[in-house]
Amino acid sequence: xxxxxxxxxxxxxxxxxxxxxxxxxxxxxxxxxxxxxxxxxxxxxxxxxxxxxxxxxxxxxxxxxxxxxxxxxxxxxxxxxxxxxxxxxxxxxxxxxxxxxxxxxxxxxxxxxxxxxxxxxxxxxxxxxxxxxxxxxxxxxxxxxxxxxxxxxxxxxxxxxxxxxxxxxxxxxxxxxxxxxxxxxxxxxxxxxxxxxxxxxxxxxxxxxxxxxxxxxxxxxxxxxxxxxxxxxxxxxxxxxxxxxxxxxxxxxxxxxxxxxxxxxxxxxxxxxxxxxxxxxxxxxxxxxxxxxxxxxxxxxxxxxxxxxxxxxxxxxxxxxxxxxxxxxxxxxx
Length: 334
What we know:
The protein is an alpha/beta fold. The chain contains 8 helices and 10 strands. The radius of gyration is 18 Å and the shape is globular.
């Protein structure tokens, strides 16, 4: 698992790695509800203004901050990051979708985001709450976001990477069998998963589902092996499933392969030759690569020899856009 410091460093410089195109960008805050903590994140959306360099916390980024949303009836895609990640970890994919007419909303998952003060990645409750976070994000975008009227509520997709892939699988109807983890318990400091699985108290209810999600893109899903065919039997939406060739950060090639075998309808399954797990994160600029290397996590940015992450992301973003375009933009007749 990556250190919190490395991911905080990544969050501090990731948006300067590539230009943000013409997508608008605004921040969102979703209030705490009951025992569920507040959520923070960002929304990318179609915007007619010319992009410019703007301040974004400690950053200087190229985007259009808080510009008016253009058009209406836009499909919505919600995004879920991996452990230690943040809402901007897939900003280039969000920008590509927004430039094409989608509204894209991403959050920091409170229990395992690198930007969270209450981070508890070794607590399996983080895995239970993640799908609830996504459902709350959809609720917010459809009801409380100031431009909610520009979203078509019948055309909602989800994108997830690593633990975010697990999150999206659960949100679209998958039920993991966490008991399968017991055969190879995670051993990193502070991990309490196996003790909690044996106790059973954290698993009293299945992960939250959201029937409003009509299509999903899932990349290198963590815990994919815990989704058996029986656990995936209720997944009824089209899925584009991506896998790295080599895996990493605790995710193995078997995880995506198990999901591919288990889904009741064959997904659009793609294994990326020569890639490691982190190839699905936005390409790293020089500052980001140095920051993660300084914290002893160079693999976040350093791909295998011969693998070009920038070139791959041009293909990846185009394929993700084509999938959502086919499954969401064209599902309604004029």
